[in-house]
Every structure is written in structure tokens, then in C-alpha cells.
Amino acid sequence: MQLTVVIPVYNSERTIKPLVDRLQQCLQKERFDVVLVNDGSADQSESVCEQLTHHYDNVRFISLRRNFGEFNAVLCGLTHARGKYTAIIDDDFQNPPEAILTLMDVAVQGNYDVVYSRYAQKKHHWFRNLGSWLVNTLTTYSLGKPKGLYLSSFKLIERDVVAEIVNYTGPYPYIDGLIFRVTRNVGSVEVPHMDRVEGRSNYTVKKLVGLFLNVLIGYSVWPIRLFTIVGFSLLIASVLAGFGLLLGRLTNTWSTPGWAIISWSVWMATALVLTFLGIIGEYIGKLFMTSSGVPPYVEKQRHGFNQRNEIHSTRSELST
């Protein structure tokens, strides 16, 4: 199998069939399969995906028991990927399926482990563009990502990297964070970006904050190091300020009401302590959830896996 296309599906009953149909047309010269992962859709997406497995022999479908999140659904799809390369594409048609061939060409020619797409003009809502900018800026410092690299959800990953990614068993997968734990051999290529065909983006303030905290806390010790530096800097500043106050009092050249200094000190110390405790709490919470065995996803049912005599991809098979 040369290529596997993983599609996380969420409330896309009107777009998922045209997307799969178009994949069959534009990739007909390739040996490929499609893995659909329904992430707890509230519409008829599950039924449509099941019908697609009956219509196409190379389409497989996993339905999750509830909505776990996009990255969790993608991780599930990667677990069942069998191709030498795996493409991840959204279900909203904003990424043309034909561009998968472009990603493959760049991966082969440049011998890249991962190839990201980038856009000359993004057609996302301004709020999602803002969120993408914030996350990309954060990952530049927390993951060591090159500054010019845009972490698009539309990307192509080589099989060996997929094998390492699916070893993750915690409840907070961040696919790009897992990628940069494995490799720095990453390329990018410009592809078209289309207007959304149907519905609206599921990108909300809650999801943006969750993703931001997941990247900040779950894949880096940068916040703790930052507060260590801040604390040490405040210690030095406090010592210098103490010498300054003492010198001013001894020479009678400077005086400040005592209540002003005490108030500033209390507010500053309280804010720093609460912020620091909040970050430590996030780390402890994630460690607790991970150690308690909370899975990244739970499969409800599969379709398209028993129609042929095939060897299914599992974590152990990918590792070999």
C-alpha cells in the first residue's frame, strides 16, 4: 500500500461522500486506502461513512463512542494506517484532495519524513486564523519548530514516523507535538485553500484554549523554566530594591509611603503564586489523567475491515 488517507469526520454528512468520491478519482493511479474516523457526530455522518465502506473496497471506517476531539480521532486513524505514506485531510473540502499528490511528490523528492501544506491565502474565519497564529508562535518556542513552518492539519507523514506516533497512549495527543518528538526532517509546499463548502467551523474559544494549554503544558517544560527565570529575576530585583530603600532611608534622599510598597508587594506576590500554582496544577492534572489509564479514544464499531483477507495495521505491526 503506497498511501493511506486519514479523515477525521465530525458532522459532515453532506461533504464526506463527495470528498471520498473525489479521492477515488484523483488517486486512481495510486495503491491507496481511506480510513474514516467518526468523532461522535450528531448528524448522519456515521450512516454515510458505513455506506461508503460498502461502495468502495478500499474504504475503512471506525466510529468512536463519543466526541474525543480531532487529534484523538486522527490518532485512531493513524493506528489503522497501512500505507508507506499517510495523508491527513479535513472533511470540509477546504483542502483539495488532488494536493495529496503534490505532498507525496515533495516527500519523495526531498526524502522528507513529514510534509506540511501551506497556503498563499487562507480561507478560514479570522478567529481560526488568529488561533492558528497563536499556536504556531507557541510551538516555535516550545517544540523547536522552524519559524517559517506553518503547522497545517493537512499533511503527509512517512510510515516510520506514524509507527512512533501511535505508540502514544495518553488522553492528550497533539499530532504535531508527537511529530517533532520524532523528527526534524520536515518540509512544506504551497497548496490551494478553498472556501468551506458546507456548515461552519467547529473551532471555538474553548477548543482554542484547550489546544493552547495542551501545547503549552503537555509537550514542553518551558512554562516551568520561564517561571524559574522570573522567580530568580524577582529575587535579584527584590534584593536590589531592598538596598535602594535602605540607602534612601539612610541618606534621606528618597521616601515612599509604606502602604504603597506593601500593597505592590502583596499583589505581585499573590499574582505570581497563583499563576505558578495554576501551571503546576495543569502538569499534575495531566500526569494524573495519563497515569489513570484514560484512553485517547474508544472505538464503538468498525466497518470495512472484514470484507477482504487483509492484515490490519496495529501498533505492533507498525513498529515492525
Automatic annotation (TrEMBL):
GO cellular component: plasma membrane
Keywords: Cell membrane, Glycosyltransferase, Lipopolysaccharide biosynthesis, Membrane, Transferase, Transmembrane, Transmembrane helix
CDD domains assigned to the protein according to its UniProt record, in alphabetical order: DPM1_like_bac (cd04187)
Record's signal peptide: none
Annotated transmembrane regions: 226-247, 259-280
Any GO BP: lipopolysaccharide biosynthetic process
PANTHER family xref list: UNDECAPRENYL-PHOSPHATE 4-DEOXY-4-FORMAMIDO-L-ARABINOSE TRANSFERASE, UNDECAPRENYL-PHOSPHATE 4-DEOXY-4-FORMAMIDO-L-ARABINOSE TRANSFERASE-RELATED
Keyword Transmembrane part of the UniProt annotation: yes
Domain of life: Bacteria
Residue ranges annotated for the Glycosyltransferase 2-like domain, each copy included: 4-164
Species of provenance: Spirosoma terrae
Name of the protein this chain belongs to: Glycosyltransferase family 2 protein
Gene Ontology terms for molecular function: undecaprenyl-phosphate 4-deoxy-4-formamido-L-arabinose transferase activity
